[in-house]
């Protein structure tokens, strides 16, 4: 009882009884087994238990290795290869075929439209933006698709499969270091009210993105003429190359062909149509967005969609700020990135060297070839427009939360601060109360 009532207050009576009955009073319990016991050591052993027989993936999953080219700064041997095993994924075309064959596809919206609300009192009309298939982006994509030349000998209707990706690296448990990096796919053809329901089954798991293993540090530390700063920059470079190496497997030749020519599928209404996948959104937190956009994390131009510098952040919210953002959208220059990589892999320059940075130019670019631009850029895809705002990470748990905490601290610092915070609380409750409760 002394142990229960000391230390952490999260030990319940039921857990204490389970400890006594299931552990201490167990027949195979031996006190000597605890000699030299370390929680951290045993958690690390569990995290590193990578026996493949314990993990069984369905038959439609594939596994491949990602090979990285690590520059050595040597003109005789310009780079060394490092293989990272265990990238498990499902081919995107197979996921699309499976989704359109599912019973849930009967609720898919295959043709976009504008939703108009008409006031019953004065009759005026307003445009309603509530779904992906009622957005201007989908309407433009549908118009572009109809203007595209038809496939030879094909008279089928052409429709769009709206792809919405989401990824977020997460820890698997409160304790330990084991983590996973799942990649999910939603179809914007389904209404958000069904798509966002917890038990809707509308979320398709398409892969587990691997992270850099710890032993890559041994490979980097054995390189000649590398400083601590250079090692950190090279480690970040390998992480970016690993991420886009995974996406090169996902954006395979079959998906690129389907993106350009479509795939013939039988829809739930029994009609055969030519379905064209289109990537509309990719939701991720800021550290993952800079990976997708191939830019530096909090660099001189930290926005993954535009080229506005940090010193203009104080203009946020002004009309001038929005005008400048629209006038300075990001445009990827593959030629500059290729030239910068030539300096690294052929001429022995460092990843963060002056020649590489001068070649990349302004914009916080990094010497990693963007897989989205490389694969889908020739087909007119803009890899930066798909990076939408993540309200949970960037607003509710990020920018707005930090700003709101700062404002509350300012109120506390003023004379009578506790009363001011109390007034704020009462106004917040009054504002969010339903009309019938006032």
Offer a concise description of the structure:
This protein is α+β, with helices and mostly antiparallel strands and 438 residues long. The chain contains 16 helices and 11 strands. The protein has helices spanning 13-24, 39-47, 92-101, 136-147, 192-195, 216-221, 228-250, 253-261, 286-293, 319-327, 334-345, 354-360, 371-376, 391-396, 399-413, 417-431, and strands at residues 62-71, 79-89, 115-118, 125-128, 157-167, 170-171, 179-180, 182-187, 204-208, 263-266, 272-283.
Describe this protein's structure.
It is globular and about 75 Å long. Helix content is 37%, strand content 16%. The strands form three sheets. It has a seven-stranded mixed sheet with strand order 1-2-9-8-5-11-10. Helix 11 packs antiparallel against helix 12. It is built from 16 helices and eleven strands. The chain has 438 residues and is an alpha+beta fold. The mean pLDDT is 87. A hairpin with a 6-residue loop joins strand 3 and strand 4.
Throw out a few tags for this protein.
16 helices; single chain; alpha+beta; 438 residues; 7-stranded mixed beta sheet
Question: What is the topology?
Answer:
Layout: H1 13-24, H2 39-47, E1 62-71, E2 79-89, H3 92-101, E3 115-118, E4 125-128, H4 136-147, E5 157-167, E6 170-171, E7 179-180, E8 182-187, H5 192-195, E9 204-208, H6 216-221, H7 228-250, H8 253-261, E10 263-266, E11 272-283, H9 286-293, H10 319-327, H11 334-345, H12 354-360, H13 371-376, H14 391-396, H15 399-413, H16 417-431
Parallel strand pairs: 5-11
Antiparallel strand pairs: 1-2, 2-9, 3-4, 5-8, 6-7, 8-9, 10-11
